[in-house]
Amino acid sequence: MAIMQAFSTAQPTQVRCLICEAPNSQDAVVCGDCSAPMALVHDALVQGRVPQIISVLGESNVGKTVYLGFLLDMLSQRAHDFEAIPRGAYSIDLQQNVVASMTSRRFPEKTAMEPDRWNWAYYQARKSTGRKSRWYDLVMPDLAGESLAAEVATPHTFRVIRSLLLKSSGAMLLVDAALAANGAARPDFFALKMMSYIDSIFQTRREQKIATPIAIVLCKSDHCPECFDNPRQFVQANLNRLWNLCESRFASIEYFACSAVGAVAYATGGNSGDVDYVRPVPLHTSLQGILEPFEWLIDNI
Amino acid sequence: MVSASSGVRTQERTEITRRSPSHGALCSTASDARAVAISTLATGRVCVSLSRLAGEEHTGRGGRVWTDVVLVDAPDFIRAGGCPGTFAEAVASAPLAAAKLGPSIEKVTLPATAANRRVCSRPAVVQGVRDGTLAAMAALLLERCSCVVAVADPVAALEGALMLLPLALRGELNVSAGLRFANSRRVTFCVVEQIDVDTRRATRGHPVALLAGDDLAGRSLGILGPWLELMMRWWSEERVGEAIALADSLQVGWSPREILEVAAVCEAIDRHEEDPERLEALLARRAAA
Prior knowledge:
heterodimer, A: alpha/beta, seven-stranded mixed sheet, two-stranded antiparallel sheet, 12 helices, 37% helix, 24% strand, globular, B: alpha/beta, 7 strands
C-alpha cells in the first residue's frame, strides 16, 4: 500500500522516496532530499511488498561497514540455510568493497558523512529450511558513525537518519566490546545516547516499552572472548548504563557477540605527516556470530 | 565540530555540520588540495568554509578533511570583499594550530587585504579570462543557476569569477569549489575538476545542469553581459587592478541597470568619447545617494 501511494500521491511524473517520502522525478537515481537510492522504490514496486528496513547503528570505527559487508556476503553464500537475492547491482557494492579490502589486509575506507556516499543494500532473504519459509525484503543502509553521532547530539541534523529509524522494523546497535572490556566508558555512553535517541523518536508512554526488536551486537569480541560465553552478562557488567536503559524501555532486546577479524597486527610508518599512528592491520578474517543477530531479528520482525 | 568561538548559534552548528565535507570529499587527492564553499545559512549569516586534506586518522584510514569555517554577517561579507581569498588570509593568520585547539577559540579579524590580487596571476584564472570561461561562470552565478561546472582549477576559477562580479552582487551565495557534488551541501553552483560517474548519478533526474569548462566559452553572458565583457577586456589588457577596484567600488545597492550604465561609461571613456571625470562623478553621485 505504501509503495503504491509513493506513486499515486506524487505528481504523475514523480515518485516518492521510500525513506523520506520527498517527491522526485522518475528519472532520479538518488533522492534529492535524503540521497537514498530511488531504486529502492522501483524495486519494491516490482516485488509488490513493502521492504523491511533494518538499521545498523553504532559509533564511528565500531565496525558497521565490515559487519554489514560480511553479513551480506554470508547471506549471498547461503550460510546457515539462508537464501538471499540482491535487488539491484548497487546492493552488492558494500560486500564487494569489504571483501576486497579485507583480502588486501586493510580495513575499508571510512564511510563519509554525506548521505549520498552511504551504501544501501536491498536484499530478499529467507531461511530455506521449513515448509513455510517466508521471503523478507530487507533494506540495510551502511550509515556513517559520525553522522549518527551528529544526529544524536543535535536531532534533525541528518533527517534521513530519523526517517530511517522511524520506518525501521528492527535495528542492530553495534558496540565496541574490546574498548568496553578495557574499561573505557565511551562505548557505554554512545550506546546509551543512541538508545535514548531511539526512545525519544518513538515517544511511547512511560509504562509502555518500545516493541521494535533491537539486537545489541558486541563487536571485536575476539579481544574479549568471554563475550561469546555470555553476552548478556558482559553487557550488564561492562555496559551497565546501556543495560539499565534497555531493561527499562525496550521490550524486545537481545545481546550477541561477534567478531570478523581473526588476528590483527599493528603497523607504523608510511605516513608523510608529522604524526605517525600505530594502525591496525587485519591479517585474516575469522567470522564468528555474524549471522545470529540477523537471524534473531528476522524471527522477531 | 572540534572547536568554535563564542557566538556560533546552535542552528548554525547544525547547518554547518550538515554542509561540511567529509572523508574523500575533495576533488583532488593531492596533499595541497583545497576547497572552498560559501553558504548563506538560515540565520542570514554567511558561512565561508575552507577545506584541506588532513592526512589519516588514527585507524590509518585516509582522506580526512579539515575545514575552517568563518561566520560573518552578510553586510560584513560584502565589506570584506565577498571573495574567499580574504577569509583564507584571515584564517591563515589566526592562531589555529590543530594541536592547540581547545573547546573554544578566539574570533578572527578580517584584514582589509588585496589578497584577491594574488589569485589573478594564477594560470587557471588567466586562461579562464582569455577564453571567456570565467565570464560565463560569473553569468551563471548571477542567474543563480543550479549547475556543476568542471574546470581545471576549481578554487581559482570560482575566485576569478566572483571578482568579475560587482561587489553588490556577491551576496546570498551557495557555491562550492573543489568539493564533490553532494545534495546535502545544498549548493546551487558547484565547481569541480571533472564530472564523474558519482556526479552524474547524484544529479540525474534533478534540475542541475552539468557543464564542462570548455563548453562555457561563447555562452550568453545574460543580463550583465556588457559589464562582464568590459571586465574581460580590462583583464586581457593587464588592467586587472582597475577592474577589481571598479568591481569592488560597486557595493550594496547598485542595481543591474546602474551597473550597466557604469559599463557603458567605461567603454565610452576607453573609446575617448567621454572624460574619466564622468565615471568619477557617476560613482560619487551614487555614493552620496
